[in-house]
Design goal:
The chain is α+β, with helices and mostly antiparallel strands. The chain contains 3 helices and 6 strands, in the order ααββββαββ.
């Protein structure tokens, strides 16, 4: 995508009155005083979602509620770790938050299935490996755990801490 030329590069494109730079631009203090609150809120939400270093998280969404059954889109298998954790990345259909999920089950033992999921920043997911995704979940301060190992009920599992991997 090409960049628009600046007024110094192509002054002929900027010769009409409405294209001139203001001689004295309005200050941030002025804009803060005249901007409606709903616009300030919308700008803050958009900036938070566009920041690739933090998970874009609407904490009121059902994907953050362990008792809810959120709808997932863009589910992609990342792979399996050396410890047999099956790793998947997915996105909440409602709020768009990216999540990483780890699932482990020992077929020889009943009620051994467990899964953990944690929100993740979308920028970190494209090239993520199964081992680094598992580390992301292990180091997450907020994650949801569930499965037959936990009696079939999902719950908030505060981290960072090791994931339960024994049968």
């Amino acid at each position: 995508m090409s960049k628009l030329p600046s007024p110094k590069e192509r002054p002929d494109l900027y010769d009409s009155y409405d294209c001139q730079e203001p001689s004295k631009p309005a200050s941030q203090k002025y804009w803060d005083s005249v901007m409606p609150e709903h616009v300030k809120k919308a700008i803050a939400e958009r900036q938070a979602k566009s920041d690739p270093t933090t998970p874009s998280a609407d904490k009121s969404c059902q994907c953050f509620d362990p008792s809810a059954e959120p709808e997932w889109i863009d589910q992609t298998d990342i792979g399996m770790t050396d410890g047999y954790w099956d790793i998947t990345r997915m996105r909440c259909a409602r709020c768009g938050t990216a999540w990483v999920r780890a699932f482990l089950e020992y077929e020889a033992f009943s009620r051994s299935g467990r899964h953990y999921r944690a929100p993740a920043c979308a920028a970190a997911l494209p090239g993520i490996t199964p081992e680094s995704a598992l580390q992301l979940i292990t180091e997450a301060s907020f994650r949801i755990a569930g499965g037959s190992y936990f009696g079939g009920k999902d719950h908030v599992s505060n981290g960072p801490s090791a994931l339960i991997a024994s049968p």
